[in-house]
């Protein structure tokens, strides 16, 4: 197993928006998705806006996730965008509605993970277990190319120590880590968290399911909702050709002159995504990250909007199992690792190789092929059923 983990630059905010307010927040969602709309005000004599959280070469988001699910609208964006774009909209709502929108009080850091030699279920466990055992709350987002972990900014030192205890070698500035082989240790070092962490993975799973049962969290499935994981085609910044396969990061830097955001994106793809967002989809999760083409996890019925602008397995049938976590605090630990670990264990790793996980602001979704999702439900339902 060869895994590389890097801290992305900047601090990020998680935003929860109730589905009932979707239309009120569609415009700010689009303003964030199309970042250079933020500069229009200055051209009209309005205040100059500095665009934070964008890459220097292509002026694209370093990281952005927009997810519309049957439970909520969730946005992970640079904290400056939360402050400049979303907070004014919330302030303009009636007080009772404004209270239903939640912005994380603490900033988060993004860990970008590139892993070879492990199936998807193995990656979830390998990446989340050392942090969960150190008592660090996380959010986990699987995409077409990479995995991303959100950790509280205040926990950075504990994250570094937890990764180090599992054999990840840090760079000099502790922003990049490499692990060429799995480490046998399972109890990370680090400053003790406020609540004593579980001593092992078995106890972590037990605590996670005890908490979910106590808060009456039951798995939800809409079998009519089928998802596909795809990547968008993207315009090469060097040749203007359309490509879909991952490239070395060096190929993403403009040659000769500074190109703008609109030069580097596939405008066809972005038009399709906007069409999907405007339709208020049942499920659409978009992840933009500086080293990857756009990644989409979407309701299969939306494919007709995209034409040939997507690549990936559009014939697969993946069913999401939703866990509504609105009753749990953001600081809760071990949920991703506990749920994914128990499924990987009971379904056997080889059979659950396509398991992926999406954390949104107030929910989680385990995504599996149709046949495996039924088995997963059979495992989860008794574990989450409260005994009277």
How would you summarize the topology of this molecule?
Elements: E1 2-7, E2 12-17, H1 22-33, H2 40-43, E3 63-68, E4 73-78, H3 79-91, H4 95-98, E5 102-103, E6 108-116, H5 120-133, E7 139-142, E8 147-152, H6 156-165, E9 169-170, E10 176-179, H7 201-214, E11 219-220, E12 227-232, E13 234-235, E14 242-243, H8 261-264, H9 267-278, E15 284-289, E16 292-299, E17 310-312, E18 318-324, H10 335-347, E19 356-360, E20 363-369, H11 370-384
Antiparallel strand pairs: 1-6, 1-10, 2-4, 2-5, 3-4, 3-15, 6-8, 7-8, 9-10, 11-18, 12-16, 12-17, 13-14, 15-16, 18-20, 19-20
Which key terms come to mind for this protein?
388 residues; alpha+beta; 6-stranded antiparallel sheet; 20 strands; 30% helix; globular; CASTOR ACT domain-containing protein
What does the model show?
It is a single chain. The chain is of the alpha+beta class. The chain has one domain (about 1-180, about 195-388). About 30% of the residues lie in helices and about 25% in strands. It has 11 helices and 20 strands. An 8-stranded antiparallel beta sheet has the order 5-2-4-3-15-16-12-17. It has a 6-stranded antiparallel beta sheet with strand order 7-8-6-1-10-9, with helices on one face. The protein has a 4-stranded antiparallel beta sheet with strand order 11-18-20-19. The radius of gyration is 20 Å and the shape is globular. The protein starts with a strand and ends with a helix. Residues about 40-50, about 180-195 and about 235-255 have low confidence and may be disordered. This is CASTOR ACT domain-containing protein. Pfam families: ACT_7. It comes from Hapsidospora chrysogenum (strain ATCC 11550 / CBS 779.69 / DSM 880 / IAM 14645 / JCM 23072 / IMI 49137) (Acremonium chrysogenum).
């Amino acid at each position: 197993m060869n895994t590389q983990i890097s801290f992305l630059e900047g601090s990020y905010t998680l935003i929860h928006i109730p589905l009932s307010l979707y239309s009120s927040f569609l415009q700010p969602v689009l303003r964030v998705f199309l970042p250079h709309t933020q500069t229009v005000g200055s051209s009209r004599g309005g205040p100059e806006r500095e665009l934070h959280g964008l890459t220097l070469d292509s002026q694209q988001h370093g990281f952005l996730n927009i997810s519309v699910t049957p439970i909520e609208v969730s946005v992970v964006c640079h904290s400056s965008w939360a402050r400049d774009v979303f907070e004014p909209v919330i302030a303009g709502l009636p007080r009772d509605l404004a209270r239903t929108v939640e912005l994380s009080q603490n900033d988060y850091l993004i860990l970008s993970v590139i892993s070879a030699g492990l199936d998807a279920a193995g990656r979830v466990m390998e990446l989340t277990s050392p942090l969960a055992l150190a008592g660090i709350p996380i959010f986990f987002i699987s995409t077409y190319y990479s995995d991303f972990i959100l950790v509280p900014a205040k926990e950075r030192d504990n994250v570094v120590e937890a990764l180090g205890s599992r054999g990840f070698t840090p760079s000099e500035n502790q922003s990049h880590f490499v692990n060429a082989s799995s480490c046998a240790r399972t109890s990370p070092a680090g400053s003790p968290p406020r609540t004593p962490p579980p001593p092992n993975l078995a106890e972590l799973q037990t605590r996670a399911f005890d908490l979910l049962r106590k808060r009456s969290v039951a798995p939800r499935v809409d079998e009519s909702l089928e998802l596909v994981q795809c990547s968008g085609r993207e315009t090469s910044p060097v040749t203007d050709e359309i490509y879909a396969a991952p490239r070395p990061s060096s190929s993403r830097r403009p040659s000769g002159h500074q190109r703008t955001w609109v030069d580097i994106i596939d405008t066809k793809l972005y038009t399709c995504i906007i069409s999907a967002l405007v339709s208020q989809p049942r499920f659409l999760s978009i992840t933009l990250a500086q080293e990857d083409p756009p990644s989409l996890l979407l309701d299969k019925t939306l494919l007709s909007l995209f034409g040939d602008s997507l690549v990936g397995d559009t014939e697969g049938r993946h069913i999401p199992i939703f866990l509504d976590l609105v009753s749990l605090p953001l600081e809760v630990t071990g949920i991703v690792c506990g749920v994914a670990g128990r499924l990987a264990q009971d379904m056997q790793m080889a059979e659950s190789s396509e398991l992926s996980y999406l954390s949104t602001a107030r929910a989680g979704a385990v995504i599996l092929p149709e046949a495996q999702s039924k088995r997963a439900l059979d495992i989860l339902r008794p574990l989450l059923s409260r005994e009277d």
